[in-house]
Amino acid sequence: MSTLSGTDVRTDDSYVAGMERLVDAVRDLAGARGLDDVVEIVRHAAREIAAADGATFVLRDNGRCHYVDEDAIAPLWSGHKFPMEQCISGWAMLNAQQVVIPDIYVDDRIPHDAYRPTFVRSLTMTPVRAAESVAAIGVYWASNHEATATERRLLQALADSTAVAMENVRVLAELEERRAFEARKREEWLQACLHITRDLLDGTASDPLPGIAEQARWVAGADTTHVLLLTADGAEVEIAVAAGELAIQRPGERYPLGKTYSGLVVETGQPVQVDNAQTENRGAVAHSLVSAPIGPLLVVPMIAAGRTRGTMVMTRQAGEATFDEVDVDQATAFANHAAIALEFADARQALDELALREERDRIARDLHDDVIQRLFAAGMSLQGLLGTLGDGPGAERLDRSIVDIEKTVAGIRSAIYRMRTPLGLGNAGLRDRVLEVLGEVTPLLEAAPAVRFEGALDVMADTDLVEDVVTVLREALTNVAKHAKASHTWVEISYLPGARELVVEVTDDGVGLGEPARRSGTANLAERARRRRGTCVFTSPTPGSEAGTSLRWAVPVD
């Protein structure tokens, strides 16, 4: 026998067994993944360590003691809940003290009526965690027994290990919850990207920006989202769309990048997350776009094909949670996806307009090459017949018919020009300007010129080059009207990206311009070509030739 204290008498074998069981329990608790695991380990270990007839695991639950589970020779209180002030486990937790009761019927802290149906005659109750206990471990004997000091220390060590295990379980649960939350967020951002892609591919969204802004606002949990697109010169951003009840709608309004968050994002290509935009000078523009005080702010770049299209600005009201790392990472990826969607939408719109223009050009060519020629031939036949009729009512009616045919031809030509005007472009492109010149000069010619366009002319952004083309064409057609005496004129404007050359060709079937007119008429055109490292070739008709004058003005396009 080994005497440890006045009442601490256990054989060496039982002490060693208790220590070994405690070590096993501590090892098992280290691997516990949930509260159920902790309860299962502790209820068995506590009974074995104390050589008791029963053990319970009691959880503190909103002012009540919840007897979660037990290991005993007969049923105790598993699954029941009692007010903390009315049971000994509650006393132990409230006072953060281990309780040893050799005889339950002589202790006023014990609710005797609850114990009479049980085998319990003595007990020890150990709180789990001294500061603000979260649980308690009870062990019970069917006979009067006062726990030894060793038993008490072993039970306290088990309670301390249980406290650590429960904290680990809580941290693990928070981590799992965080991972699940982040996974849900990533899935929501992915679904938002897929939603944009689906709308673009099925053609249901003529303007993808409103959907992009609303999707970003909803997934990010933001109060407002603004999409700001860079202007052509890159010095300003323009409000394209806004989403959210608190968003102030100012589409088309522009702001200099200057000292703004959008300017910083465009400059660095990196997102900016601000906890409280109210304290930052760069947040002035963002404040002006929202009808309530803003706190957290997130600005992400919209980058596609190595080019920054603009920024996406998301805000939350003052006092709300900041945007976390998942928001920043996923919103950045979403904004880049949105930028690609805009590139796709622009390309599809250009293709649609090109297809419609080609169809209208085809119809115009059919009208010019078939209908007008038939009417012209009919008019010539009627004029020949008119010469054989002499004067009289029949001749007058025939003459009026000829005039009607000429008016019809003129109306069809006007319709052709209208069909060849650009399809809703905000700024006049090269085709627009060419058709304007034809409209101005046609009244001076014998007949409306036949015009042909080839290539992607309206995507040219060099306004100075467009002005040169307009000047060259106007001067060439004016010379034809003044000097060539031509019956027909042909105009062809072509731009083939592969050749990287813009060509203007004007040809007529007249007698030529004459030497003085030729020199004065081509000097300015040649100078404009020279300034652009191009060529200006002027060909006059040879005596007896049926060919007229031709001008070929060609310049390289960088």
Structural class computed from helices and strand pairing:
alpha+beta
Please report the distance between the alpha carbons of the first and last residues: 103 Å
Average pLDDT figure:
82
Biggest β-sheet: count, sense, barrel? Answer: 6 strands, antiparallel
Task: Give the spatial strand order of the biggest sheet.
Answer: 5-4-3-8-7-6
Number of helices: 13
Q: What overall form do the CA principal axes indicate?
A: rod-shaped
DSSP strand tally:
19
Helical percent range? 40-55%
As a percent range, the share of strand residues is 15-25%
Describe the model.
The chain has helices at 12-30, 35-49, 88-95, 112-115, 149-202, 209-220, 261-268, 284-288, 325-389, 393-419, 430-441, 463-484, 515-531, and strands at residues 2-3, 9-10, 54-61, 64-72, 81-83, 99-101, 122-128, 135-141, 224-230, 236-243, 254-256, 272-274, 294-304, 307-317, 450-455, 489-496, 501-508, 535-539, 550-556. With 558 residues, it is of the alpha+beta class. α11 packs parallel to α12 (463-484). Mean pLDDT is 82; it is low at 1-10 and 423-427.
